[in-house]
Hints:
Four copies of one chain form a homotetramer.
Chain A: E1 14-19, H1 33-50, E2 61-72, E3 81-91, E4 95-104, E5 112-122, H2 134-141
Antiparallel strand pairs in A: 1-3, 2-5, 3-4, 4-5
Amino acid sequence: MKRPEAEPRSAFAHFEPLTTRWMDNDIYGHLNNVVYLSLFDTAVNQYLIAAGALDIHAGTVIGLVVETHCNFFDSLAYPQRIDAGLRVGRQGRSSVRYEIGLFAEGVEHCAALGHLIHVYVDRDKRRPVPVLPDEYLLALKGLTL
Amino acid sequence: MKRPEAEPRSAFAHFEPLTTRWMDNDIYGHLNNVVYLSLFDTAVNQYLIAAGALDIHAGTVIGLVVETHCNFFDSLAYPQRIDAGLRVGRQGRSSVRYEIGLFAEGVEHCAALGHLIHVYVDRDKRRPVPVLPDEYLLALKGLTL
Amino acid sequence: MKRPEAEPRSAFAHFEPLTTRWMDNDIYGHLNNVVYLSLFDTAVNQYLIAAGALDIHAGTVIGLVVETHCNFFDSLAYPQRIDAGLRVGRQGRSSVRYEIGLFAEGVEHCAALGHLIHVYVDRDKRRPVPVLPDEYLLALKGLTL
Amino acid sequence: MKRPEAEPRSAFAHFEPLTTRWMDNDIYGHLNNVVYLSLFDTAVNQYLIAAGALDIHAGTVIGLVVETHCNFFDSLAYPQRIDAGLRVGRQGRSSVRYEIGLFAEGVEHCAALGHLIHVYVDRDKRRPVPVLPDEYLLALKGLTL
């Protein structure tokens, strides 16, 4: 299996700017690995909300996370600002694999690269939708290179 | 105004044992101040749920936090285990002031002391209840010295 | 004692823009109370670092939190952007009380108001400094109305 | 590629009991996916500290996370208690792949399964150690089935 490598900004379709927090730094002085994952779902959902696909308060379709993965190449540290690069990796009937690169502000290659797989379900029954709603299909176009 | 002082275990009516996490330690090697507050609402709600007062999924009355306060006397650090001591400080018609002391396992005086004020509201309208439900009144008796 | 009230933006000397995260929203659909406190120490330290006062990796003087307090007036929720307003409340020989208001982007009155008291100590011995270093005195001027 | 499946408790060599927190529950009423990853590094490091391998304050060898992965099968929710099952997946010269299953208290199959790869480095130079220290080798034996 090929070892994952840091990718450049041009490998991503859209960027969400995010801020870091004092408590993100762990005892070794850089962002704890868990925080990277928090930036993943923050960036993905933020894009989906702004695109009009996800309504976390009243929407009938919500995304449940079934898989996450992250490779770490470089340290990030508070108070750095982060750009989260997004692209769609694989799009199924009811699931989407989002690929995310986290970039320190002004840096060309990502410090971490990973993915998050959402299965879209009916909010009440928590069963996968038969097909992605139109507003999701539209939003995902904006994450395609 | 009197300066707050570390209180002994005997000043609290009930204890909830809690574990710490790797990411709780900040760059200075001890629990970040914010984590103490997270242990506050974890301990209070855990007690209320176990006592049958709070049902976070289906209950019609929920507690909204309107004030928090914490004084820090001593460091705590992962992987220490914590005992959160609880008592009722003031009980109003629709609000309760919970006072919490955080103790390192096996230590007699608290490392931090603070409070959290809940106003109990109707879940949908978010308006204060006219009077605390019976199950809350019963639960609060268990936090009275 | 006077009940705290939401203050306008003009009551603060400096603002730090901060982003919220998916996981900040709790089961009731708004920012968990603990997150507000995390924005407090993020904003204060971010200002001190940018002002050249605090060097979290190599500085010999660090700020330890001895007291935090927060009053909550209004809900905030991811994905809202937050402006953290800062001012110096009280400045002692080795301690500073920072007062912080958290504002939803574009809103005139703060959703939460609180404070955080730092005691500045020698990094190794953790003993209070006899007097605040010049770079702190200079930085604090920027937080004075 | 085989789709990952929930494994039983017997597939793990050691268990660390962990508590959940109020703020772990997200708007959908269960533990946010990021929290699972926080339980991963909490459990791994807790074991290494108790086994005498890792000294986070004074040790000269520290573990840096280079990869994390998680598959989610079932919801967990505060205030559930969690058992984190641990085993060594692959042991290199300077790296270890820890495999972790998260179990709701009293439940036989894990709600989530994943891994975390540590590269052990010299604390100051952040260069991989040529060979794992004896205390790590000893500790890892306790995570072998």
